[in-house]
Design brief:
By secondary structure, the chain is mainly alpha-helical. The protein has one domain. It is built from three helices and two strands, in the order ααββα. The chain has helices spanning 3-19, 25-29, 40-67; strands at 34-35, 38-39. A hairpin with a 2-residue loop joins strand 1 (34-35) and strand 2 (38-39). Helix 1 packs antiparallel against helix 3 (40-67).
Length: 69
């Protein structure tokens, strides 16, 4: 595994972690529209969860791409 890939993965997950805490999340919590019948803060957290899944999926493909002969 390359350390640059791990470093980028750590930075992305640190940014997602900060996006769920103060001072970022209170900015989102104030928004009141509904998206597909769900409150916006819930959609925000679900979007971050989906983003983390996609990042992990891409990282897994990146790691297995380097392992192929």
């Amino acid at each position: 595994m390359h350390s640059t890939g791990l470093r980028a993965l750590a930075i992305v997950f640190a940014a997602i972690f900060v996006a769920t805490m103060w001072p970022v999340y209170p900015l989102v919590r104030q928004v009141h529209p509904f998206v597909f019948g769900l409150p916006f803060p819930l959609v925000y957290v679900l979007g971050l969860t989906l983003l983390s899944f996609i990042v992990l999926l891409l990282f897994d493909r990146y790691v297995h791409q380097d392992d192929d002969p």
